[in-house]
Amino acid sequence: MTRVVVIGGSSGIGLATARLCADKGWEVIVASRDPDRAEVDAEKVVLDVTDAAASRELFERLGPVDHLVSSTVLRVGGPVRELDLDLARRAFETKLWGPLAAIQAADVRESIVLVSGVFAHTPSPGGAATAAVNGATEALVRILAVELAPTRVNAVCPGIIDTPLWSPLEDEARHAMFERLASALPAGRVGGPEDVAHAIWLLLTNGFVTGTVLGVDGGHRLAAP
């Protein structure tokens, strides 16, 4: 049976990906800080992705896996002169260095998929840290696709996706923001986690795609809101 580890698979894009893989009959291992909240038929293991030793222990126990997906993220924003640099560093640990340590530790036979983000391509005031970590993730994908071949390495680059990442906003403010953004997008709506999960599935299962960053943004880069 095909085995996939989804780091950050307890909510949002990661959870949608874990569910899709499980629905397709794969053996799914969800690894996150709070895996028990993931409502999916999967093995659930506790993992702080920023703890490289914990990643090594996990993958030593799991042995070879077919696929690895990392969807971890830490939201950080603010004008450059006011940016919390410690928090920005944590964002890099969560989305870049932590997943890279997991990739070092894992024996992945077929493919790896990371998650970037559209603000690497469409500058947004207050988004310096987000843009930087997403851009670094995309650069890493191209190097890893060459170094780790024949294991394939790709990424998805979501636009505005309705996930728990936005939960700090009040419901009314969040819905108003989504409506405003949807009106500016060619797709006419913001995305859902399932939209990104299906793109990840394509990258996991198409054996002739590597070193690719697949946009899943409803046309955001064509008409940035």
What would you say this structure looks like, in words?
By secondary structure, the chain is an alpha/beta fold. It has one domain (3-213): Rossmann fold, CATH 3.40.50. The protein contains six helices and seven strands, in the order E-H-E-E-H-E-H-E-H-E-H-H-E. It has a seven-stranded parallel sheet, with helices on both faces. Helix 4 links the parallel strand 5 and strand 6. The chain is globular and about 45 Å long. It starts with a strand and ends in a 9-residue tail after the last strand. 44% of the residues are buried. The model has no long low-confidence stretch (mean pLDDT 94).
A few lines on this structure:
This protein is of the alpha/beta class and 225 residues long. It contains six helices and seven strands, in the order βαββαβαβαβααβ. Helix 3 links the parallel strand 4 and strand 5.
pLDDT averaged over residues: 94
Radius of gyration: 17 Å
> What is the assembly state of the chains in this entry?
single chain
Provide the helix percentage.
40-55%
Q: What's the helix-strand series?
A: EHEEHEHEHEHHE
Number of E strands: 7
Q: Briefly, what CATH class?
A: Alpha Beta
Q: Determine the CATH superfamily.
A: NAD(P)-binding Rossmann-like Domain
